[in-house]
Design a protein that fits this description.
Layout: E1 2-11, E2 21-29, E3 33-37, H1 44-52, E4 58-63, E5 66-67, H2 73-79, E6 80-83, H3 95-104, H4 115-128, H5 143-156, E7 161-165, H6 173-190, E8 193-197, H7 201-207, E9 210-215, E10 218-223, H8 225-228, H9 231-238, E11 240-247, E12 250-258
Parallel strand pairs: 3-8, 3-9, 6-7, 7-8
Antiparallel strand pairs: 1-2, 1-4, 4-5, 9-10, 11-12
Length: about 270
């Protein structure tokens, strides 16, 4: 059973005449990783934000069988954790405090941390490999370090759904692969539904169970990586000449070149793959 269902979701930002996301349907299961991919302006981050309930949208987002908008703020924190592309934590806070605040979001303003809170925070800090950063202030952290602390914050919520917007953007290649491995562990071993908006098609094809391909705010195709990533579709949507092989059980996507004189054409929309 799907834990997240996006039903006919459309999003139009103020003063825009055309929707950024138009009539998208998609479903996401617990214990899996899904990548939202597409060219710049495809609507990846915007669609992700609808599941985080941080943008206004038409249609419905269902979380664990109930409308997202029916949850109270405290209930929502237990369901969904969101790692934004750019962290906005107070620059004077210690990294440790940034992580701890996630546990307080589902409690009253004067609640004390419980043993369960301490255990969740400790697990998150260890899992995200940020113990050495905990006593530093936020404004002394690099972009990549901030991203990893934000991941620890999200993990400590112990939510059923983890959303990440371009999480590898500020990371070096070692930490990109390490992050995706950490997400794989959360999905496989803790049954978390992980949804990631990302540009790196290679990482998406290697680590993700499902790909949701967007173009101009519309769903082109969703399904397993080998169903979505074909040379013809990659050329049409992204303007790249790519070879696709299977290595060690994983799809390997090698880009040979950008297609000369490529002009963007709309890929026929195939709807939701089952």
């Amino acid at each position: 059973m799907s834990i997240v269902e996006i039903q006919n979701v459309s999003i139009t930002y103020h003063r825009k005449s055309t929707p950024t996301v138009a009539n998208v349907d998609a479903s996401f299961e617990a214990g899996t990783i899904t990548a939202l991919v597409g060219p710049n302006g495809a609507g990846k981050s915007t669609l992700l934000k609808s599941v985080a309930d941080v943008v206004d949208f038409d249609g419905e987002v269902m979380i664990d069988g109930a409308p997202l908008r029916s949850y109270s703020r405290r209930e929502k924190v237990k369901q969904v954790a969101f790692v934004a592309q750019h962290g906005n934590a107070n620059s004077e806070l210690l990294a440790r405090q940034v992580v701890e605040l996630s546990r307080m979001a589902s409690k009253g303003p004067f609640a004390r941390q419980t043993d369960e809170d301490h255990e969740a925070i400790s697990h998150a800090v260890e899992h995200a490999d940020v113990a050495h950063l905990m006593d530093r202030t936020w404004n002394t952290l690099s972009g990549g370090e901030q991203q990893r602390v934000q991941l620890a914050r999200a993990i400590s919520q112990s939510a059923k759904v983890l959303l990440l917007d371009e999480p590898t953007n500020h990371l070096d290649i070692h930490h990109q692969f390490r992050l995706m491995g950490q997400l794989r562990h959360l999905a496989t071993d803790h049954n978390v539904c992980v949804i990631v908006a990302m540009h790196d098609l290679g990482l998406a094809s290697r680590y993700c169970d499902q790909i949701v391909l967007l173009e101009d705010g519309e769903l082109v195709k969703s399904g397993a990586p080998h169903e979505v990533f074909t040379p013809e579709r990659l050329m049409s949507v992204f303007g790249i000449d790519a070879e696709i092989t299977t290595v060690g059980g994983h799809l390997d996507l090698a880009v040979n070149s950008a297609v000369p004189n490529w002009k963007h054409h709309h890929e026929p929309k195939e709807g939701l793959a089952h």
